[in-house]
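Incident review: delayed structure delivery

Summary: a single-chain prediction request sat in the queue longer than the usual turnaround. Root cause was a stuck worker, restarted by the on-call engineer. No data loss occurred. The affected request and its eventual output are reproduced below so the record is complete for anyone auditing the incident later.

Affected input:
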Amino acid sequence: MLIDAHQHFWRYDPLGYGWIGPDMQVLARDWLPAGYAELRERHGVQATLAVQARGDEADTAWLLQQAREHPWIAGVVGWVELRDPEVAARLAHWQAQGPLVGIRHQVQDEPDPVAFLADAAFNRGVAAVQQAGLVYEVLLRHEQLHAAVAFCARHGAAPLVLDHLGKPDISGDIAAFARWETEMRALAALPHVSVKLSGLVTEAGHDAQGALDVAGIRRHLDTVFALFGADRLLFGSDWPVCQLAASFEQVLALAQDWAAPLSADSRAAIFGGNAHTIYLAAPGAR
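Output delivered after worker restart:
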């Protein structure tokens, strides 16, 4: 079963999607399930996880509506205000509305992401997410990744999933790679932490001819496979954000070409089995 464990839908609103800057005009329009359906059918994607791209509960409500209307959207990773004292009630409310399987906060965009990860109210909210049987997704950039180890160690009651390999600096910088590898090794020592193989094409550099640094991407994929193993890696396209650098077809082909030498069981786990186990078979899934 091929599951795309990380993709997005939205109705574009410049105020609601302020992270879409002037150099991202390809994203500055509606991206709806109808646009993904053709890709899904062409490439045999049986199910997807739709991930929040805006920090408000209206987005969560809208994504759950899309999942009710399109059963192949098997789960929603939504947003709630985790610092709300009534967060447990908010989570229960949205779980009753459809297949809410996880929660994400765009910590990378906070004024001080490291301080935010240590915030007591935020940590109480993450604990409530885990008590509800939901996955919490960690969204950080490589400069912030050092703070993820202590955060993840505090929250071992349910799975945590790191998005986009922690957004590494795929530029060929040896020191940056070494720092990232050290931090990922520490995260790999926490058995409840898994990693999404997603979002890498938008982090990679290009050569003088404009070609994507595929070798750099593969080096990072090799590293997380060695550290986490096949049972804690999940493929995600990051569509439509991937289109800033590559098409859905290119992202899928890159991942499948990299995984081709792996065993059939490993490929099955990475391209669907792990997503099913972590998200769709989890206690909080509906």
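Verification: The two ends are 19 Å apart (CA to CA).
Action items: add queue-age alerting; document worker restart procedure.
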